[in-house]
Amino acid sequence: MTQNFYITTTLPYVNGEPHLGFATEIIRADILARHFRTRGGKVFFNTGTDEHGQKLFLKAQEQGISVKELVDQGSQRFKDFADTLNISYDAFVRTTNKTHMRAAQKFWEVCDENGYIYKKNYQTKYCIGCELEKQDSDLEEGEQGLQCPIHPHMNIEIIDEENYFFAFSKFEDQLLELYAKDEGLVVPDFRQNEIESFVKGGLQDFSISRLKEKMSWGIPVPGDDEHVMYVWFDALVNYISILGWDIGQSMFDLYWKEGETFQICGKDNLRQQSAMWQAMLIAVGLPHTDKVYINGFINGPDGKKMSKSLGNTVAVDYILDIYGVDALRYFTARHVNNHEDTNFSIEIFHEAYQANLVNGIGNLTNRILQMSSSYGVEPVMRPESQYNNEALDSYDFNGMMNAVFKLVGEMDQFITDEAPFKKVKTDPEAAAQDLQKLLGQLWQVAEMIKPVMPDTYIKMVDALAKNEKPEEPLFPRIEISK
RNA sequence: CGCGGAGUGGAGAAAUGGUAUCUCGGGAGGCUCAUAACCUCCAGAAGUUGGUUCGAUUCCAACCUCCGCAACCA
C-alpha cells in the first residue's frame, strides 16, 4: 500500500491542561503516522488547538489578559505537550490562524450558497448568577423548574436571540448511506451502530453562530457583522483548512481527495466527527472522511471518570518524568484497550512497565548482546524488509504489541532451551549460530516497535550495530514507593 | 419500555459450538547469559435463569448488576 494517508487528531480546546486521554489520542495517531511512513506511503499528520469560544473569552477577562495572550499560552502548552510525547506531526493548526479563519469563512459561504444555512429564533437559558448561558444538561430540576446548581435561588432566564442554523436534518439519508457502505465509516462497529441509530432517531438542526455583542471571540460570519461562528462549526473545518482547501492547494487534492483520510477521537466526539462533520462535508460537496476511529476513555482505577481533583494531568507529567515517553507510548498501544474504556492507576502502569519493558525487551536485549559480544559473534546487519506490522494496517494497537511480546517470549524460551551460554564452552560454533538467530530476531523486535517507541528503536539499533549491550539499560528498573 | 457499552480464576485482558489462553499476583522447582532478571510446573474463572443443540463460555430470550451518553469534556 503506497496510498497517501491523511491522519488527524481532534483539536483540544486550549482552555485546559493536556491530559491522559488526549495523550492516548495523539500517541495513537502518531503510531499510525509512523507506521504508514515506514511502509513507504506519503503521510500528512495534522493536530493543533481549538481557540475560539465563550469560555476562553471569559477566562481571559477573569485573568485580566487579552484573549490572544491566553490562547497563545494555551496553544503553546499543547504544542510542547505534543513535542514531549515525540509526536511527528506535519502540521499544527491553530483555529485563530488567518489561514484557518479564511477557510472557515469560505466553508460557511459555500454551505450558505448550497442552501444549508438559515436564520431562526433560538432560545437559550441564562443564569444571572453565573452570567452564563446554560444547557439543559448544566441545570438541575428544582422546585420551580430548572435551576442552576451553583445559584439555586436565582431564576433561569430564557433569552430569545436570532442565530444561524445548519440544516443538519437534511442529511439523515445521506449519512445513513455513508454508514451502510461496505467499508463503513466508524471503527469499531459498535460505535458505528450507535451513531447509526442516533441518526435514524432523527436529526435536529444545530446553531452555528453567536451574537457578537455578547461574545466577540470568534470568526466573523461572512456578510453579517452581528454574528460570529459558533466554535464547533469553525473548529471542524480545520481538518481541511490545514490542507489549503479554500485556495485550491494541491495538498488538498493529494490527501483529502485522493488519499485515505483517517480521524481519531474519543467516544465523546462520536457525533461531532462521524455525523456533524460528515454532514458539513456533504453540504459543501466534499468527500467524506474514510475512517473515524473511536477511542474509549481512560478512567480512574475504580472505573469512574477521571476528574481534575484526581489530578490526571499531574499523572502525565509524573509518568513522563519517572518512566519516560516510550513507556507511556508503549502503555497507550498495549494496555489502553483499543476501543473500550481503560482503568488507569500508576500501579497498573508500573506493573506493565516492569513486566514487559524492564523484564521483557530491556532484559532480553541485554542478555543477547552480552553473549554475542563476549563470545565474539559476528554482528548481524539490519535485515531487509523486516518491517511487518500487519495489525496496524487495521489499526489494532493491542494486537500489534501482542505480536511483539509473543516473539520476545519465544526468544527468552529459546535461550533457556538451547542454552548458548553452556554451548559456548563445548561447541562455540553452535552457540554462535544460536546467537545469530537471536540477533536477527532482536532486529525484528526493534523494527516492530519502531512506530511505537522511536527512542527505544534508536537505542536498540545502536546497540545492535555496535554488537554491544547498551551502556544504560533500555528500561531501568524503577522501585515504586507506595 | 430514551440510546449505547460491559459482566471470563485475586486483578487486568483474549479466543472459541467440543481439553478456556495471556500478563500480574500466590505456591513449588530449575537455570546462571541477563536489569533479584529468564524457564518449567501447580492452585484458582464464564452474573442469574431458561431455550436451541449430542454438546454452549460461545447462538437465542428474559432478568440482575456496573458504566457512559442525552447535542461545546479525548
Could you characterize the architecture of this molecule?
With 482 residues, this protein is of the alpha/beta class. Among the domains are: 5-116 and 171-204 and 231-295, 3-Layer(aba) Sandwich (Rossmann fold), CATH 3.40.50; 346-466, Isoleucyl-tRNA Synthetase, Domain 1 (Orthogonal Bundle), CATH 1.10.730. Helices cover 49% and strands 16% of the residues. It is built from 18 helices and 17 strands. The chain has helices at 20-38, 54-63, 67-84, 98-113, 172-180, 189-200, 231-236, 238-241, 250-257, 270-283, 312-323, 325-334, 346-374, 390-393, 397-418, 420-426, 428-449, 454-466; strands at residues 5-8, 43-49, 91-94, 117-127, 132-134, 140-142, 145-147, 156-166, 186-187, 206-207, 209-211, 220-221, 224-229, 260-266, 291-295, 298-299, 342-343. A six-stranded parallel beta sheet has the order 3-2-1-14-15-9, sandwiched between helices. A four-stranded antiparallel beta sheet has the order 5-4-8-10. Strands 11-13-12 form a three-stranded antiparallel beta sheet. A hairpin with a 2-residue loop joins strand 12 and strand 13 (224-229). Helix 15 (397-418) packs antiparallel against helix 17 and helix 16 (420-426) packs antiparallel against helix 17 (428-449). The radius of gyration is 26 Å and the shape is elongated. It starts with a strand and ends in a 16-residue tail after the last helix. The model has no long low-confidence stretch (mean pLDDT 86). The structure holds one RNA strand of 74 nucleotides.
